[in-house]
Design goal:
By secondary structure, the chain is mainly α. The chain contains seven helices and two strands; from the N terminus they run ααββααααα. A hairpin with a 5-residue loop joins β1 and β2.
Length: 181
């Protein structure tokens, strides 16, 4: 398909699924705006007490929708997401879901914010320190790390770089033969 054949309609048609992911967020924003005068989700009374409105459960429903969506997309694209990243996503979902359940059962315990903070920290730590980028045998960065470095630096910096890639296919054999084991 040529670039000229992409019209707003075809782009929308091809990406309708991804645009649909934003619908719950738009509904959530509308509810928050409407909540200010109507107090349908939550409010603070004159004595400073935090109270739930009649539709407070929609906040939990919104979280459930996005957690289910995250889990579903992770399962759907499991071949494109490495094992450690998938495990990090599942841990994130598990921490958030368990904190929501605890908070629903014991409303006086405000645990969700802390759980989300911990979960986001785990994801950020995983993104900044990917252990699967290190070759276990040599301790050097592997080909995945090389690809990410090239992609990141090719499009963000304007200086010339030279890369050396060495491919050793039978590293175990060489280690054994040369006595490095």
């Amino acid at each position: 398909m040529s670039l000229l054949s992409y019209t707003p309609y075809t782009l929308l048609k091809e990406n309708i699924r991804y645009y649909a992911y934003f619908a719950p967020a738009l509904i959530f924003v509308a509810l928050i705006i409407v909540n200010i005068p109507t107090k349908i989700l939550f409010f603070i009374d004159a004595e400073g007490n935090y109270l739930h409105g009649p539709y407070f459960v929609l906040l939990y429903a919104m979280a459930a929708v996005y957690l289910a969506l995250t889990g579903g997309l992770t399962i759907e694209y499991k071949n494109k997401i490495n094992k450690i990243d998938r495990r990090t996503i599942y841990i994130f979902i598990g921490i958030v879901v368990s904190s929501i359940i605890i908070q629903m059962l014991i409303p006086s315990v405000l645990l969700t914010g802390v759980a989300i903070s911990i979960s986001v920290y785990l994801v950020m730590d995983r993104m900044s320190n990917p252990p699967d980028m290190i070759d276990k045998k040599t301790g050097l960065y592997n080909y995945d790390a090389y690809e990410q470095y090239v992609i990141k630096n090719t499009f963000t910096k304007r200086n010339n770089k030279y890369y050396i890639v060495i491919k050793c296919e039978s590293l175990d054999f060489l280690d054994t033969k040369d006595g490095f084991n």
